[in-house]
Design brief:
By secondary structure, the chain is of the alpha+beta class. The protein has nine helices and eight strands. The chain is 58% helix and 12% strand. Helix 3 runs antiparallel to helix 4.
């Protein structure tokens, strides 16, 4: 028995070292690739951008070629965990670190690719504008000419020359029309400004609502009626419950599979016990709780964590939910206070499997 036990421990240790070696190799490769993608090289023209895009596509091919390596590593890690390996905690931590770095690498590639596409369009616009400007400058002497001819032959030649100019100008119409169209960079900037203005207007409206509700509560003895933006409410439920409107982005379904739809959606999010459910709006949840958003199944929080998404800078008040199966969600709250309520509540439910009688809450005013 002692020989068998020793042999088993040696096998476990050997598999552990093999696992760590695979993790280390992939980590070093990702660090090197991230450095390459973080290059500060600035192209000067369209051909320079196209060269950078070709290099970046080479990085994508390299990432795709490593998919089998990641798959083998995840399989080995799950196998060791299923055997209740003595280093299970270390294995889980390494898998989490690897998944986070891998997600960050892919996110960095996508951001870089989007940036290159934007500047390619800008450089193409600059090139086409320069060509159009050169053509206009070349026509300037002819248009300013005061020569009208001194004979019939000269006048006829000038008429033919002017007809040729009109044809050339007509041929340039499409080029000038294309230059009038806004680039994607300009459209994105306009949308960003519009979104910021909309959020500012929403903040003003929500603050006005809060002040009105606060004044009503002071002026009335009876409790407020139930609404989508009501404060904390009492419930007979024995589970901890939190509901409110958040903006959600589903990034990963598992450690190896991206979500099919990664757009931002404003939906009703419900935290009930160790599960999170999604609905089109709060009215649907309260009247038809069986009709979830896109018929999605509840998300299991056991083994998951919520944290402020400090690495995501495109939106404010964003937190990340990581699930035990590698699933990954981003949520945008109305403000930091609302974000902290969700992060703390999710982590509490994820860590505690059984709760005593508690309160059922909705978010403070401003959740919708």
């Amino acid at each position: 028995k002692a020989v068998v036990s020793t042999q088993s421990k040696l096998n476990d240790t050997g598999n552990l070292f093999r696992f760590f070696a695979m993790v280390r190799n992939l980590m070093l490769w990702m660090d090197d690739l991230m450095r390459q993608m973080s290059t500060s090289e600035k192209p000067r023209d369209v051909s320079g951008v196209e060269l950078l895009m070709n290099n970046h596509q080479g990085h994508k091919a390299e990432i795709d070629a490593r998919e089998d390596n990641f798959g083998d590593l995840y399989s080995l890690g799950k196998e060791l965990l299923s055997m209740s390996h003595y280093a299970s905690n270390e294995i889980k931590e390494k898998l989490r670190e690897l998944t986070d770095k891998r997600n960050g690498m892919i996110h960095r590639w996508e951001e870089r690719w989007e940036h290159l596409q934007l500047i390619l369009e800008v450089y193409q616009f600059a090139r086409d504008a320069a060509v159009a400007e050169a053509w206009l400058i070349a026509q300037d002497p002819y248009l300013k000419s005061e020569e009208f001819g001194h004979s019939i032959d000269e006048v006829e030649n000038l008429i033919k020359k002017h007809e040729a100019f009109e044809k050339a100008a007509a041929a340039q119409e499409e080029r000038f029309a294309a230059l009038e169209r806004l680039t994607t960079f300009e459209l994105k900037d306009m949308k960003r400004r519009q979104d910021e203005e909309n959020l500012r207007q929403q903040d003003i409206i929500e603050k006005q609502k809060q002040e009105q509700e606060r004044g009503q509560r002071h002026g009335q003895d009876q409790p407020d009626t139930r609404s989508d933006t009501s404060s904390i409410k009492e419930s007979k439920s024995t589970d901890e419950e939190l509901e409110g409107m958040l903006v959600r982005k589903h990034e990963w379904e598992s450690t190896t599979k991206k979500a099919s739809n990664r757009s931002w959606d404003r939906i009703c999010v419900v935290l009930k016990g160790t599960q999170v459910l999604f609905y089109k709006d709060q009215k649907t949840y309260r009247t038809r709780p069986e009709e979830t958003f896109r018929s999605e199944l509840p998300v299991d929080l056991i083994g998951g964590t919520a944290e402020v998404a400090a690495d995501y800078t495109k939106k404010k008040h964003v937190f990340r939910l990581r699930l035990a199966n590698g699933g990954d969600y981003l949520f945008q709250a109305q403000d930091d206070e609302q974000m902290e309520v969700w992060v703390n509540s999710i982590n509490q439910q994820a860590q505690v499997h059984e709760e005593g009688p508690g309160k059922s809450q909705t978010l403070p005013p401003g959740s919708e």
